[in-house]
Design goal:
This protein is of the alpha+beta class. The protein has a single domain, classed as 2-Layer Sandwich (Beta-Lactamase). 45% of the residues lie in helices and 25% in strands. It contains five helices and six strands; from the N terminus they run H-H-E-E-E-H-E-H-E-E-H. A six-stranded antiparallel sheet has the order 3-2-1-6-5-4, sandwiched between helices. Helix 1 (2-15) runs antiparallel to helix 2 (20-35), helix 1 (2-15) packs parallel to helix 5 (136-162) and helix 2 runs antiparallel to helix 5 (136-162). The longest helix has 27 residues, at 136-162. The chain is globular.
Length: 163
């Protein structure tokens, strides 16, 4: 019950923001805190160009991948969350991003973010849970969280398209 209260408090902060960068930063920080992860990237869906891209990626610049690339792309395609606790053993994993950044990914949790029409508008990717692997309870918490932030994210993305 405490986690739900914390998420509700977070929601009040999120609703006060109008800028996508600030919104994504707040969402990423809260997602990391929720499951004790080291990094969080929020991939935004660009159907026109067939890409998933990040405005925010802890520690590295913008990441751009195709809609069917990597574990994030698979999460987008399947429209379901995933836990990968041995990414280097998973053929979907994109090790070139680690090579470029110097970061070593130990485990991954991805969760789709749906809009009001149940279309995937983004994917939350969390990396490297502290002291252990991601578990089902982490997946459930981030899925709840993604559903909670989806309306705010949808509004921010829509207002940005109009600008």
């Amino acid at each position: 019950m405490e986690k739900i209260h914390e998420i509700a408090e977070f929601g009040k902060k999120l609703m006060a923001l109008e800028n996508i960068e600030e919104s994504l930063e707040l969402i990423a920080q809260e997602a990391k805190r929720l499951v004790s992860a080291d990094r969080c990237s929020i991939f935004i869906v660009d159907k026109e160009d067939g890409m998933l891209w990040t405005r925010l990626s802890d520690g590295i610049g913008r990441i751009v991948i195709s809609l069917d690339s990597g574990i994030v792309g698979d999460t987008y395609q399947k429209k379901e969350p995933q836990i990968v606790n041995s990414p280097y053993d998973d053929p979907r994993f994109l090790p070139n991003i680690d090579k470029k950044s110097g970061y070593v990914t130990k485990n991954i949790l991805t969760v789709p973010i749906f809009d009001s029409k149940r279309e995937v508008i983004g994917v939350i990717q969390l990396l490297n849970k502290f002291r252990r692997d991601f578990e089902e309870k982490d997946l459930n918490a981030v899925t709840f969280f993604a559903n909670y932030v989806s309306g705010s994210l949808e509004l921010v993305l829509m207002s940005e398209k109009k600008a």
